[in-house]
Amino acid sequence: MSVSSFASAGRSGTPWWRRCAIPLVAGLIGLLSACAGGSGDSAQARSGQLTLAAPRDLFAGPDDPYFTHQALQVWEPLVTLDAELKPSPALATTWKRSADGRVWTFQLRGGVRFSDGSPLTAEAVVVNIERFRRIAPKQSPFFSLDAGMESAYGRLKEVRADGGAVVFELADPVADLPARLANFFSMIQAPSAFDAAGRFAGKPVGTGPYMLVSSSKGQRVELIANPHYWGKRPALGKVVVRTIPDANARVAALRAGEVDALIDKGALLTGQVGAVAADRRFRVTRTPSVLTHYLTFNSSRGPFADPRLREAVDLTIDRTMIAKRLLAGTATPGASFLSPVFGDLADPNVRTPYDPERARRLVSEVGRPSRPITILISSAEAGQFPYTDIAEVLRSALDQAGLPARVSAVEATKTTMESGDYDIFLSAYSVPNGDADYLFRRFLRSDAEWNRQRGLGYDSEEFDRLIDRAAVSTDTTERRDLYRKVQRLLATDRPMIPVAYQDNPVVASNALTGLTQDACYLVDLAKIAPAS
């Protein structure tokens, strides 16, 4: 949809995106004026305390598989990821694979202790992996554990300690186990942290540079430096992370000097980035991220069981306009199912044409649905991204294509999707690890819980066969080619379609150094220090 076509979406005749942008810009100007007297100075950091704000709660509590998000650095994984989503050492320093790909051995870092002073051992790692398998399936606001944990470990026969190493023995080959279990799925905490049922018995007991001191759900988390940390001692002895869901309130707190930096997914709304970056007291850093905005179709019933109408929706999306205007240049137009952050696994030849005229012809060929299309969005995500605006633009585009639509913003999208009360779901998805298999297997394989329970209705033997082959292939070229075939298939079938690839803006006071956020939204708190 061209920008000029938005005029029909509003009574005033003013293009829809401009009517949304005017109050946003006015609000930001007002915020700049109101806070112009704020110091932006990081007195707290100079005193040895760092205060951050995040849009969501990074503390989940004892019923969660992890207790805290990895970003708080209370716990560490066996394997982490580098800037290119390649496996990188954490608590495991090296790993090797048997010739048949069925046995992986991870050598542990020596001299590591948990925050209670007990040593990291291979036996402790085994306890953690077996706990995950025992408590799965388990929901988490971060990354949920699926039944069997195959998306993390493959078909795991046994995990065992072997001196200072941990051995994973698999029923089937896994091409890249380090990437699969990177970050969340290889969280390690002291066995004493868990009760017999796998629930946390008290506070988390990890190996990270910080320890949890206190927490107030939905409000704040307090951390102090871990005296047993194996690495370089953090420059700041205390970290407070405040949960501030409202985007304008986060920026106001930054400008008033109440917080030193804004971190995590959606730290700045896309429309705030330019105004905040223009303030010389602060530094905005933008990096690529694993986050992609997708449209998911309910293809199990209703109009989108017909692939021609899914194609019609795809053709109505002006991705360039959405990325440049609604996402304010903080995203790039979506094309292949895998974003460019996946490197050569992403297929550069997948194209997503914008052709509203062809969309209208397809709708005319199929016939108009008997009821309006429901575009579902999460009210929580609408506080991180301009989903209300994007959904309204989509509604207008669909209406012009002959598909009348309505927007529904709800808090419990899982419940709504499982009831089947939606046609299109706009949401952002990322990965907990460095393996593309997670996205394919968890969301779209014919037997995936997400696919079956949430009404996607995608059932492709060819898709299942391709991702299963890729998962066991140890030939990197073959694996790349298989994943590119998968993406070309998805570009034709359209069970989910990428709208835009989101980048990763965070902001800090110039009184700080060392704040960066990686593609998985992780900040290295231990590297943040007062500027000299």
UniProtKB/TrEMBL annotation:
<feature type="domain" description="Solute-binding protein family 5">
    <location>
        <begin position="86"/>
        <end position="447"/>
    </location>
</feature>
<keyword id="KW-0732">Signal</keyword>
<dbReference type="Pfam" id="PF00496">
    <property type="entry name" value="SBP_bac_5"/>
</dbReference>
<protein>
    <recommendedName>
        <fullName>Solute-binding protein family 5 domain-containing protein</fullName>
    </recommendedName>
</protein>
<comment type="similarity">
    <text>Belongs to the bacterial solute-binding protein 5 family.</text>
</comment>
<keyword id="KW-0813">Transport</keyword>
<dbReference type="InterPro" id="IPR039424">
    <property type="entry name" value="SBP_5"/>
</dbReference>
<dbReference type="InterPro" id="IPR030678">
    <property type="entry name" value="Peptide/Ni-bd"/>
</dbReference>
<dbReference type="InterPro" id="IPR000914">
    <property type="entry name" value="SBP_5_dom"/>
</dbReference>
